[in-house]
Amino acid sequence: MHPTLHPDMERFVDDVAAIVRRGGGEEVVTARVAERLETLLGSAGVLDPRCTTPHVDNYVLYPVWVAPDGGFSVAAAVWNVGQVTPIHDHGTWGVIGIYRGVEHEVRYELQRGPTGHALRQLSERDIRAGHVIVCCTSDHDIHRVSWGSPVPCVGIHVYGADIGTLPRHVYDPATGQMRTFVSAWTPLDAPPPGGE
């Protein structure tokens, strides 16, 4: 399931495992993971080239590493030019580092009312290659992501669960209604874009 890990990525995975074992709450864990991810982004070629390939129809999520106990995962998220996620949450903490290109993020807040729900936009930003952000903690966790540059965007995402199997939610932008989904991992041996 996993690609062969670059030695720097292997060390990163070991360090994240130690950070997760140490614990200390989501804010502490995400700050430590973000600091370590900044260092990783300074290394060239840490992603298997198969994990940087965009697909024609939709953004993809490749499994770089999933902890055997499901306690965290490292993903390569790839958006081709023009691709956008639905508005979604994660149900766990997450840290994002941009490996190539620019990721555009719009954050939302779900407002619950007596007659229904509504989404309110909170902020919007571009995250450029080499930059790291804490994208979510369990209590602040709704956004939409898209490519933000003339080339595909590749991000290294670290989550506090197996994000490819975790039930999460997508939100209707007009009504705020949510439905459960599982994003599922993109197989590394998937056919090339436009392939059979």
What does this structure look like?
This protein is of the alpha+beta class and 196 residues long. It has one domain (7-181): Jelly Rolls (Sandwich). The chain has helices at 7-22, 26-41; strands at 60-66, 73-79, 87-88, 94-100, 102-113, 116-128, 132-136, 142-147, 153-159, 168-171, 178-181. Strands 1-2-9-4-7 form a 5-stranded antiparallel beta sheet, covered by helices on one side. Strands 3-10-11 form a 3-stranded antiparallel beta sheet, with no helix packed on it. A 3-stranded antiparallel beta sheet has the order 6-5-8, with no helix packed on it. The longest helix has 16 residues, at 7-22. The radius of gyration is 16 Å and the shape is globular.
List the helices and strands and how they pair.
Layout: H1 7-22, H2 26-41, E1 60-66, E2 73-79, E3 87-88, E4 94-100, E5 102-113, E6 116-128, E7 132-136, E8 142-147, E9 153-159, E10 168-171, E11 178-181
Antiparallel strand pairs: 1-2, 2-9, 3-10, 4-7, 4-9, 5-6, 5-8, 10-11
Helix pairs in contact: 1-2
